[in-house]
Design goal:
This protein is of the alpha/beta class. The chain is built from eleven helices and nine strands.
């Protein structure tokens, strides 16, 4: 979902709709990113992230997870390929008028994990990849390559955290994301990729040369002020790009809004219960 190094590329023929990346980044920061706060908190609590932690966040987006780690005393580095999201992350973590310790201990890098290294930098003690795996076809070789590169920058035995969607029957949003997956077909639509299966996170970790060392589940309900906000928030993940390329974006919006009606309450708000799974793996 997030932002990002691990998001699939659109590999569909035909017209690719123009995307306002600034608007999308703003929607991610203001609407969608906060949906995963329970996941961030659970992981940080389990790993005792705090003073002395040197954290590398892959696909850091607009920096909310990094900000939460920095507030616990961690030295944080974020990597992302989206300059618009990184610009928002810099406002959060490196404001010109912020003279706190968090400002000096936050580093944001546009590019690949390798760009977050450096001969004079200490090895990272924690690596996170919070963008949920399990939707779309980009959860294979690309993700393995990114995790392998990040693991090379971490201490031996350091935890590397991967996140994924829980069982489809416990994730209401899965039904809505079927709209995004129609262009891909059943083989790699939402809930059908290997990373979405019970042992999918373990498989990805092992292929990246990591050693699985425990997992957990976290409730992450998606709540929105109205259907329009829900469409914008879900759109900001980039998961609907393939559907846009294969169809008409206005039609995709319409079908998404229709799918969201099942989760609209009497007061107009939208509420979708979800469960996410995370895996803690260790570098070798």
């Amino acid at each position: 979902m997030t932002p990002t190094l691990v998001r699939q590329h659109v590999r569909h023929a035909g017209r690719v709709p123009r995307v306002d990346q600034r608007a999308r980044a703003r929607d991610w920061s203001e609407i969608q990113e906060r949906m995963l706060v329970p996941l961030y908190e659970a992981v940080y609590e389990r790993l005792e992230v705090g003073a002395g932690t040197r954290l590398l966040g892959l696909g850091c987006g607009s920096g909310l997870a990094l900000l939460m780690a920095a507030s616990r005393g961690a030295v944080v580095t974020g990597v992302d390929t989206c300059p618009e999201r990184l610009a928002l992350a810099r406002r959060r973590l490196q404001p010109e008028n912020w003279e706190t310790r968090a400002r000096a201990d936050a580093r944001l890098v546009e590019g690949a994990p390798e760009d977050a290294g450096g001969a004079r930098r200490q090895a990272y003690t924690v690596v996170t990849s919070f963008e949920p795996l399990g939707h779309g076809g980009g959860d294979g070789a690309e993700t393995v390559e990114l995790l392998s590169a990040a693991a090379a920058l971490a201490e031996r035995g350091a935890p590397v955290v991967l996140a994924g969607w829980g069982p489809p029957e416990r994730c209401a949003t899965t039904q809505v994301l079927q709209v995004a997956g129609r262009a891909d077909g059943p083989a790699d639509g939402p809930g059908h990729s290997r990373a979405g299966l019970r042992d999918g996170l373990e498989e990805v970790a092992q292929r990246a040369g990591l050693r699985p060392d425990g997992s957990g589940r976290v409730a992450c309900p998606f709540g929105y002020a109205d259907v329009d906000s829900a469409v914008r928030g879900l759109r900001s993940t980039g998961l609907f790009d393939a559907a846009d390329a294969a169809s008409d974006p206005a039609q995709v919006d319409k079908e998404t809004a229709e799918a969201l009606e099942a989760y609209r309450r009497a007061d107009g708000t939208v509420w979708m219960p979800n469960v996410f799974r995370y895996l803690v793996a260790r570098t070798r």
